[in-house]
Design goal:
Layout lengths: L3 H8 L3 H16 L5 E2 L11 H11 L3 H5 L8 H15 L8 E4 L2 H12 L7 E6 L4 H8 L3 E6 L9 H7 L4 E6 L12 H17 L5 E5 L22 E6 L12 E4 L7 H14 L7 H9 L8 H17 L3 E2 L6 E5 L5 H9 L3 E2 L1 E2 L8 E5 L4 H6 L1 H11 L2
Parallel strand pairs: 1-11, 3-4, 3-5, 5-6, 6-7
Antiparallel strand pairs: 2-8, 7-8, 9-10, 10-13, 12-13
Bound molecules: pyridoxal-5'-phosphate.
Length: 396
């Protein structure tokens, strides 16, 4: 009676959401402070004051002009503000016409997939593993084939030879995400340059551009000396998908963009295809209010100190217990090795100690769990004993 694929997708459980829902229920049963919920990537740091200021200011303006539809590509003034900010930060030649305002990175990536693949033509999108699970949903829903390529097992940087080996005539795009969800790794400039070299050679060999989709909702969340490269400087055929969900702590407000650099191959046609993709997806325009907010806050940087503190506290606890993990370089996730091969079983065991850890199977690999440490500091402090108890369950 209904579209079978939609029914299957709607019924398919998301391990992250299931764990989050379980956490809410468990908190109601035993108390907020007794459940240590590391399941979700919902920023716990309040939005910067500039966001609230702009929102207040908008309430004093003519509501009709504030809340009306904007052009599908976005409010022209906001696109100019964002373009000017990108130029200030990264140089190059960025203008409003290169930007399409969206309702977050989800829509940005989904639009790219739809614009770049032809359904039925077996067009492929290469996805380094582990990966944000919705990439598969969006890739397949838009008619593409997702090709998983494992990352390096020692440090979870991209495995350039493996990506090279996976490219063929059907490859339309490669998607990367740095700082990375779920691992917290930031790809080094050398790694990205090596990837660019492979993509340039392959584009020439197969006589069509292979686009690099750089999904960067965590761009500003980076720790220590790690640097997030501006990917369009490294590879011309890059398309940037951005979102203010994490940087300005606005995940529920739905606001982001797609940036197509002028130097990208067939940039104009690609932009037109993105506009068509947005239309086909039923996307009318990004939130008019929040477009204005991010336009005004385009240069505002997030306060990452709370994440730095949480990261340090969590690492100390895990070190004291003896867990193995990848030291987070960016975003707000920590990738920890499960104490048994079956990550789901380990996550279930963790639940017995009220620790909610997402099993890595959700991200395309076994044997690990993801900890989202964008939580209240006291959650981390109070969870110390639970981490010890969980460790001791496996090391009696
Ligand atoms: N891409 C990655 C890697 C993410 O982690 C997320 C959200 O967690 C998204 C895209 C979607 O973000 P948005 O809220 O901007 O749609």
């Amino acid at each position: 009676m209904f579209n079978a694929k939609s029914v299957a997708l709607g019924a398919e459980p998301s391990a992250i959401r299931q764990l989050f829902a379980y956490g809410l229920q468990r908190k109601a049963e035993i108390g907020e402070d007794k459940v240590f919920d590391y399941s979700l990537g919902n920023p716990n740091v309040p939005s910067p004051a500039e966001v609230t200021e702009k929102l207040k200011q908008l309430t004093t303006q003519d509501p009709v002009s504030v809340h009306g539809y904007t052009p599908a590509t976005g409010n022209p003034t906001v696109r100019e503000q964002v373009a000017a900010s990108l130029e200030r930060r990264f140089g190059g030649d960025v203008t409003a016409d290169d930007l399409f305002m969206t309702d977050g990175a989800s829509t940005s990536v989904s639009m790219c997939f739809r614009a770049m693949v032809t359904p039925g033509a077996t067009d492929e999108i290469i996805v380094p593993v582990p990966y944000f699970p919705e990439y598969r949903t969006w890739g397949e829903a838009n008619g593409g084939k997702i090709v998983e390529v494992p990352s390096r097992s020692d440090n979870f940087q991209l495995d350039i030879d493996a990506i090279d080996g996976a490219i063929n005539d059907h490859t339309a795009a490669v998607i990367i995400n740095s700082p990375n969800n779920p691992v917290g790794v930031v790809y080094t400039k050398n790694t990205l340059e090596a990837l660019a070299e492979v993509l340039r050679r392959a584009s020439e060999k197969y006589c069509h551009p292979i686009y690099l989709i750089s999904d960067e909702p965590y761009r500003e969340l980076v720790f220590g000396d790690h640097e997030v490269s501006w990917v369009p400087d490294i590879y011309d055929d890059t398309v940037v998908c951005y979102s203010w969900s994490k940087s300005l702590s606005l995940p529920g407000e739905r606001i982001g963009y797609v940036y197509v650099p002028k130097k990208a191959s067939n940039a104009h046609e690609l932009f037109t295809a993105l506009a068509g993709a947005a239309r086909a997806l039923g996307f009318v325009c990004a939130s008019a209010t929040y477009q204005q907010v991010v336009g005004a806050c385009a240069d505002v940087m997030p306060d990452i100190k709370p994440y730095e503190r949480n990261r340090a506290r969590l690492m100390k606890i895990l070190d004291d217990c003896g867990y193995e993990y990848i030291e987070p370089q960016g975003a707000f996730y920590l990738w920890m090795r499960a104490l048994e091969d079956d990550a789901q079983a380990f996550s279930d065991k963790a639940k017995e100690h009220e620790l909610l850890l997402v099993p890595s199977d959700s991200f395309g690999v076994g044997g690990w769990v993801r900890l989202g440490y964008c939580v209240a500091e006291k959650t981390i402090v109070n969870s110390e004993q639970a981490f010890h108890d969980l460790y001791n369950d496996y090391n009696k």
